[in-house]
Amino acid sequence: MKIIELIIDEEAELFGIDAISLVEKPAIESDFLALKGEKVVLAEADADKRMLIGAALIPDKPIYRASGGDEFHVYFSKRTVRRAMELFFKYGNQSNTTLEHEHKLNGLSVVESWIVESKENDKSAMYNLDVPVGTWMVSVKVENDAIWKDWVRSDKVKGFSIEGYFIDKMEAQNREKMMEELKKLLTANA
Asked: What's the DSSP call for residue 60?
């Protein structure tokens, strides 16, 4: 089966990650952890944190896709994962969330984000989330009562899935070569 590396084309009109979706079956096969009622010093003893912590994007993880009768896997390099995270915040998308990629949600926001630098010494290990180095982790605060009660607490959603615009690295390289050839032809004919 064909494996395609996806990259960000920052020269395209649309690129990077627009939103993070709560989904039942995350394509990256990594569920989030829902924090509820943890006791924290200086915080209300029974306060409900309503935090979801999990992987938004895992580098080099094959993700199955099917399109137009073709089946293939896509993946993102560590470099693309880091750049996707940077652009997500650069363009202020931390409150852009959806449910199953279909319904825009209010009252959810990414309040913490990091790239895993060490499996043993990372915050993800504290929550027993086994993810590789280079993974983009997020903490999402859920202030939407209906989403928390009807979707998170009832286990209808189990993880995060990104929504964004990426291109096939091979197609991008081919396009670049074609543009170079075109420039050479135009220069030769001038």
From this structure: T
